[in-house]
Amino acid sequence: MSTINADPAEIQKFSELAHRWWDPTSEFRPLHEINPLRLEWINQRIPLAGKNIIDVGCGGGILAESMAKKGATVTGIDLSDKALKVADLHSLESGVSVRYKKIPAEEMAEMEAGQFDVVTCMEMLEHVPDPASIIRACTRMVKPGGHVFFSTLNRNVKSYLFAIIGAEYVLQLLPKGTHDYAKFITPAELTQDVRNAGLELHAMRGLSYNPLTKMYSLNNDTSVNYMIACTKPA
Question: Which positions does UniProt annotate for S-adenosyl-L-methionine binding (predicted)?
């Protein structure tokens, strides 16, 4: 079998925090706060009710569960045992059914190619050695005519100051060492990767944090956090 496209240190980092995943006051507070914005943006582009969806790099299941609450059939995949156990337990407690699997995206793409109406891959590409491989796997998993969503961090001076210095050190919104600036991905690079994988890019949105109001908002500023919406040609 080929080498798994994952950094063991990254998996370990998130595994150590897994028990805090569903605590909205923990290190995962930013995920809880941006999740409604991401969810609504996705749901506006493709109503999720009745859709078969896979969330790649699902972690503790925050986005996966919220999509299931919209009436979707959701699968979440990740490589962290601890995060998946937390996700499973929360699913049982909340009564929101999600299928969770520990499997690399590339392997899942071999097993369930063309099976999903929607593929989401949020805040993951900047944590893997080969993001283009993940993008190709997501493309294989989605049905022709289906939708794929990615979110990641731009690579520039502002994103370094905001996402690392600001978020990890000054405001302490995230644990120190959460991000590696060298792995950040510019919109131009991500656009190239999705097109190389055979996807069509339809929309891009920025996600900004205002430290004064402590609120996140969706806008056209893609200089730090951003999301893209793609489709696979029918």
Answer: 38, 57, 78, 122
pLDDT in tens, 5-35: 887 877 787 777 778 889 998 878 888 999 9
Query: Encoding tokens for residue 180?
Result: 């590696």
* Phi, psi angles (nearest 5°) of residue 97: -80, 120
Q: Specify the pTM.
A: 0.92
Query: Whole-angstrom Cα distance, residue 88 to residue 130?
Result: 27
Residue ranges of domains in the chain: 8-231
80's CB contacts (< 8 A; 6+ apart) are: 11, 14, 15, 18, 59, 102
The residue among 182, 109, 110 whose CA lies nearest residue 121 is: 109
The reply to whether 57 sits in an annotated binding site is yes
**So what's the pLDDT on residue 1?**
41
Phi, psi of 107 (to 5 degrees): -70, -40
Kindly list the distances between the CA atom of residue 88 and the CA atoms of 49, 78, 80, 197, in Å, as whole numbers in the listed order: 21, 12, 12, 31
Query: Where would I find the H helices in the chain?
Result: 8-16, 29-45, 62-69, 81-94, 105-111, 131-141, 157-159, 187-196
Among 129, 174, 148, 150, residue whose Cα is nearest residue 225: 150
What's the CATH fold of domain 8-231? Rossmann fold (3.40.50)
For tokens 């995920």, name the residue. Answer: 31
Closest CA to 63 of 47, 44, 40: 40
**Residue 112, phi then psi, degrees to nearest 5:** -130, 50
Distances (CA, A) of 66 to 12, 41, 59, 95, 225: 25, 13, 13, 12, 20
Q: Do residues 186 and 202 make contact, with C-beta atoms less than 8 angstroms apart?
A: no
